Amino acid sequence: MNIFQSIINHKVNTITGRDLIKYGNQFQISITKDQADTIASYLRGKNVNVFDEAERNKVIKEIAKIAGPDTAQQVNRLLLGLVK
């Protein structure tokens, strides 16, 4: 894993609700404070590799349960943009 991948994975795995709202606004992803906090607490400490398709899909499915399928789809688009 290169340094770029490590930095992105670290950020995803240590993200806060406030960070999620900030990125959501930046990338036009609609997310409430409660959704952001719940998603962030789910991601924190999971040690997810967003560059691994299977792991990313698993995370997106969990986000869909938390924030709904539309938000999960938008988050997936954001992650896909980061990994390419």
Total count of strands: 0
What is the approximate shape?
globular
Helix-strand string: HHHHH
Helix content: over 70%
How far apart are the first and last residues' alpha carbons, in Å?
Answer: 14 Å
User: What is the mean predicted local confidence, pLDDT?
Assistant: 88
Q: What portion of the residues fall into strands of 2 or more residues? A: under 5%
How many separate helices? 5
Kindly report the oligomeric state of this protein.
single chain
The description of the largest β-sheet is: none
Which radius of gyration do the C-alpha atoms yield?
12 Å
Structural class: mainly alpha
Unreliable spans are: none
| Number of structural domains | 1
Protein name: DUF2624 domain-containing protein
Pfam family, one: DUF2624
Organism: Robertmurraya kyonggiensis
